[in-house]
Amino acid sequence: MSQENSAGALGFVVPQRVRFDAPLTLKSGAALPGFELVYETYGTLNAARTNAVLVCHALSGSHHVAGAYAEDPNNVGWWDNLVGPGKPLDTNKFFVVGVNNLGGCYGSTGPLSLNPQTGKRYGADFPLVTVEDWVAAQARLADHLGVDVWAAVLGGSLGGMQALEWSLQFPERIRHAMVIASAPKLSAQNIAFNEVARQAILSDPDFHGGHYAERGVVPVRGLRLARMIGHITYLSDDQMGEKFGRQLRHGTHKFSYDVDFEVESYLRYQGDKFAGFFDANTYLMMTKALDYFDPAYDYDGKLAAALARAKAKFLVASFSTDWRFSPARSREIVFALLENRRHVAYAEIDCDAGHDSFLLDDAHYHAVMRAYLENIEV
Amino acid sequence: MSQENSAGALGFVVPQRVRFDAPLTLKSGAALPGFELVYETYGTLNAARTNAVLVCHALSGSHHVAGAYAEDPNNVGWWDNLVGPGKPLDTNKFFVVGVNNLGGCYGSTGPLSLNPQTGKRYGADFPLVTVEDWVAAQARLADHLGVDVWAAVLGGSLGGMQALEWSLQFPERIRHAMVIASAPKLSAQNIAFNEVARQAILSDPDFHGGHYAERGVVPVRGLRLARMIGHITYLSDDQMGEKFGRQLRHGTHKFSYDVDFEVESYLRYQGDKFAGFFDANTYLMMTKALDYFDPAYDYDGKLAAALARAKAKFLVASFSTDWRFSPARSREIVFALLENRRHVAYAEIDCDAGHDSFLLDDAHYHAVMRAYLENIEV
């Protein structure tokens, strides 16, 4: 899918911004006195308002789901291969909404925003927000857009958790939940990787307890390490083997700590790139939102009991080589839904790209998405 | 296996030290003008000198394989459950040698040693040593001890690589190679984890290009992160789930970056403990030794061709839940040996403890070790 085609098909897109003045009480008990969300829309809301679809982003995603910007045509949305006219999530049929979550660093109110009480950036004073809080904030956006009921809410990974949470927090406002490469809660190993990433940031001397912005510095070392760790868990062992193997960067062992192997070069590049634009406080918060998400927590660990209030129909999809959120984790959701006699379609897709498979335009995967979305009546 | 029993059975042990004055040229081309090795022995070398067994340590191990020290009776050797009178590696039968590898930080010549050319600690000037170099240095120790031929050389993980390398570099000097939880080379994912650990240390402001000792500081942040990452890969996902699951430390979500989950507390503790005693330059070097090891490298990637010169008999053992060096990696060694019609016994042991299984006294595992070692004639 070339970038020209994409921007050409969807046209250039323009982010929008909305302010909500009513305070929002968060799951932690803290309250925000009001907040702004940045979002994009693709396609047109029909007269009956039955064709709206919300796309929820994962850890490092944003509201920029599809299309490109006139002033920055190479900046193509992160799920552009899925969303657009004629694509699986067809903008000729659906009115698609992307939103930067509360606490994000792409323009929505977050740690980089000015705290109205101090006139300075929130930094570490921005309260921790959870998946539940994101969905509550997204509901206000739905109200603003005139969307009473989403035809579908979908997302991959942390985005899939938001789709699931929509079905629980607003069972009447979502007809279909599409939960991709996700899990009903993190495992100890998942939390462990997040914790190492957090410790990399928290222990960076440039972190300054989260108030680095005031000092005009960025904890780039910590962010870089966090992203490197993350990347290992996004890719499969097999795919890393195919992509890099033991290929040497300079054809010989250097016997130093310079780059020897291509995989080292790749990780350093990904880490450096990420540290150049992502906010450390947002990263920390996102990992905590992941760790805390556990709808069964208030139901004695019984996921089926937690999902009893869901009324949506579900598509659950997982990828064979995803070891971050393995197919077994998706099956837990499927079984809990079946126990409640909910409509659920499940696809376990053979794809070698690990967790990141959900971002790719794998033919089988996109066929599943297309088929499911085509069957949604609007 | 209680500590009292162990020290009681083996008696207190005393580390020894030997100096080699002839220069050692390393695989990198660098040369050491001479070096010291610290080692321990358990049991008695028989008159025919046919009962000597070398135990090679992995990343953070040492010469202190078994027994305890009179002045520090709680400091029990890292493989004490395996080595001692009546134990699988029976010191009533075998003369067992443990050695701290060249470049280590437990007393053998390494980055913490004084560089005779400058009178200051080597620090980052200590040359990178490889598995091949370790084996070359161990051969000098064998000469010193009067051991012409090892009855067996064994080790787990990086230690297993040394056992394999012994069979290649000195095929006439080793009768049995016991390669446990190891691999014939690292995968891209293995290298990637090592690289993140290295970057954590290298980017720590207290690293000072490896010359931290001169400045009286230690890159504790980097070492701590490196160890935390390592620990995740030593344990299995299942075992982490059983051991920690999502257990909360304080019974409630803290909505802060303090410890929420038990697994976070465990990792922080392990990281802090390790950073308190292990040398950062040694850690970096050990990870490079792992990355570089690849006996098939000079044989166009053909492991069977590389192993053709081995004459030892082999025990290869792997653990079902080891995802760092999975059973498939051990099977590569087995197949390459079989292609050469070598004697090889292979055990794939069902154990839920991941890579660290090789350090545990799992009944099935120890039965395999005992049976193999009992059959070695001395």
Question: What are the defining features of this structure?
Answer:
homodimer; 378 residues; alpha/beta; eight-stranded mixed sheet; two-stranded antiparallel sheet; globular
Explain this structure to me?
Two copies of one chain form a homodimer. The first copy, chain A, is globular and about 65 Å long. Chain A has eleven helices and twelve strands. Chain A is of the alpha/beta class and 378 residues long. In chain A, helix 4 packs antiparallel against helix 5 (220-234), helix 4 runs antiparallel to helix 8 (280-292) and helix 5 (220-234) crosses helix 7 (262-275). In chain A, strands 1-4-8-5-9-10-11-12 form an eight-stranded mixed sheet, with helices on both faces. Helices cover 34% and strands 14% of the residues of chain A. At the A-B interface, helix 4, helix 5, helix 6, helix 7 and helix 8 of A face helix 4, helix 6, helix 7, helix 8 and helix 9 of B.
